[in-house]
């Protein structure tokens, strides 16, 4: 479809231009999601105008189409944490090496990826300075300064910022990049129970970002000891799954740091009994990775598919003026449609460009993933209706202009729900229970997300990793879901044969 | 006042705690604005809880009290530029050296301040990578890629981000820091007139930030050739003035870059006649420096003075429960007052802490600059009124609770206006016309902002700089105001004696 229409559109343009337009707007992807997922993904993020590749490997330009998604999620999350009395702050990008290295496990986790500034202008710095990979060690010396008594608690801060992790393996837009945007929350409490409670409150917000905004089903659970945050007490996460690659992906994490950082950074306080006590800390973050997961889960061979709640443009209105038709009438109807939708709080735009055909525009906005297209041609004008076409399932229907707003509302709600339902069906179809090593290996080879009974021993997880190591990566634990199926007495660990302690999700992952 | 009340407040606290509380909340500043401005400023930004000094020189922690001001300005500016169809994006923090050095004048302006990443983990990078001091050279290679035809124009982007300028002279919180937050807009147009128009539209938004939000009078004008943006065509700015130091301060800049960067980065397009043409570009920015100017202009010896429009807390409500008074009744009245104000859209909070006296709280919130304090004691409760105390002029009045909301609204409006009026009076009192070199030098020694007739020759400006060089810095041009007084025929340049071309503001500056 895209090809034919695009051809028609470009008859007036020079050959040079035609080629470039084709390349720039990516009418049609050259790779298919089912056939070459990696290529398809690299292509769709550019053709959908989310990303531009940058001349430094692993860094990407986030284009306006990306930023509008990010800003919508940010508005939601920022308002929610403000309700929780968490306050925004901004700590420096730079960390001095002494502070960075204070927590041993933590720095071991991050050291290989730290970027170092050693020069300014032509001069060498006296001491190299690190760029934050995360801000625990940046912030906690000041927590120690600010927290004296129990009345200074809880201390609840958040910052929206960029962080740098100079990874060398497989840079992938959104998913694994050397610089990314995120929020990082850092909180300190007098009692462990308060910290535990907040960990789950934040995790629930992350679930809502994925499920309610991005229409992606996630599993809430706890990370294994081996996979938890370096230096923390325990890590909870929301885990998504990409059926096409059979890989789990950590969606966002909410850590209880326990008192480990408090010890290193001497964050103590006088409690209400006048005794010296140590704070309990959390840290939690979600990043622009969310957007990559959304692209992977919903995108198709025509381009992006954006859930209405996060789409910068929810409805694109396209005039279809045949020759001799009442062009002005059609354009006015488009204008009125956009106005009516905007006034009702929808994000709608019209595409009035006169150098592209309607068909070209259909393909263009499909590539960009706009959830609903409205076409208005002479017949629609005559019947006082518009034609609506859904991006997710291509369903078409005519809507009387009198009931435009309510029907668009219903359709957008339905698209949002339907994207989630389809994604959940696809994800659920990938979940496989494995009780033995053979079942586990078979499921792994079939790209499944494996739910297996496990003895919960770190050595066994390391052993599974070693035994499944291969070109496409080893299997590891994704999480132990909070929602645990019944574990029959006597159930054995699929890997060690020891008594199983819990059900855990395993798989390859990003 | 603060001293006496604070003493009373701390009778129950341990000596150790008392000292720390004193230190932490800064009840009373040890330096006076009139006597030692530099010390006063260093102290007030910490005691007012805007800043915490950081262990890397020239980097500062922006505390929540700062971020709430920043976010309010950001919400205003972001909404305004979105109305202008400017879209947010995010380009990488890192620049490769080849691209950075493409525009010669530009890199000469920034090179000494560029921070370089040369290592990741333990490995040396093949090529050192720069951290953006500003993003012209980061963005414009992609402008060249994205702009092909006249229909791709205008291209209007903005980003909210951090930038790094590794300056070595006099780091000062907000005013001169090695990392700061800002927005940077980058736009490209087909015609110079469009670019010129936008330069002024943006400048007007900057004026509104200063005058309408921060209550600081600024002068709109054009920078001299010597002071314009490195690599640009011309620079416009809003200029503020700090009477206490007699220094001008560049508030924000809106540059027309002309076609200079377009040439270097080959940003050309096919115009509507099918000819190859070069784009016209602008860039414009304001930063967290705005907050420093606000502190300097409005702050006093009791602490910060925040204009109501940017204060995180506009009204602080403090219960004053004398012994034997109806404490619950007073607390309830405080609660009701906060609720009524919040529901009417004001940012109000109550300070119910039981370990501080009312007097201590007065001093604390005065230090933090909250525009209006409401006190509720037994007498107020009995008379169904509250007592309101203005931060800016200490004026007190009783408000019947029946008219609370409207009177608070009027008072906040009046405080906002009055802060501006006083600041303008003070600024205007510093403006001095100088027509001769002697008048100029006298005014300069008297810390004036000097309006002088000038021949507009770069050599003359350099000469003035050389002749006024001294410990506290040389005089330079601040701007040539758009609002030019009449220039009588035959008026001569104060410095060169050549015919004057325009009136220009001169002075020492930050």
TrEMBL record, chains A, B:
NCBIfam families: proS_fam_I. This is proline--tRNA ligase. Its EC number is 6.1.1.15. It comes from the Eukaryota. Keywords: Aminoacyl-tRNA synthetase, ATP-binding, Ligase, Nucleotide-binding, Protein biosynthesis. GO terms for cellular component: aminoacyl-tRNA synthetase multienzyme complex; cytoplasm. Residues 69-307 form the Aminoacyl-transfer RNA synthetases class-II family profile domain. Residues 1-25 are annotated as: Disordered. PANTHER family: BIFUNCTIONAL GLUTAMATE_PROLINE--TRNA LIGASE, PROLYL-TRNA SYNTHETASE. It catalyses: tRNA(Pro) + L-proline + ATP = L-prolyl-tRNA(Pro) + AMP + diphosphate. PROSITE patterns: AA_TRNA_LIGASE_II (PS50862). One of its GO terms (biological process) is prolyl-tRNA aminoacylation. InterPro entries: aa-tRNA-synt_IIb, aa-tRNA-synth_II, aa-tRNA-synth_II/BPL/LPL, Anticodon-bd, Anticodon-bd_dom_sf, Pro-tRNA-ligase_IIa, Pro-tRNA-ligase_IIa_arc-type, Pro-tRNA_ligase_II_C. It comes from Actinidia chinensis var. chinensis (Chinese soft-hair kiwi). Gene3D superfamilies: Anticodon-binding domain (3.40.50.800), Bira Bifunctional Protein, Domain 2 (3.30.930.10), C-terminal domain of ProRS (3.30.110.30). Coiled coil: none annotated. One of its GO terms (molecular function) is proline-tRNA ligase activity. HAMAP family: Pro_tRNA_synth_type3 (MF_01571). SUPFAM superfamilies: C-terminal domain of ProRS, Class II aaRS ABD-related, Class II aaRS and biotin synthetases.
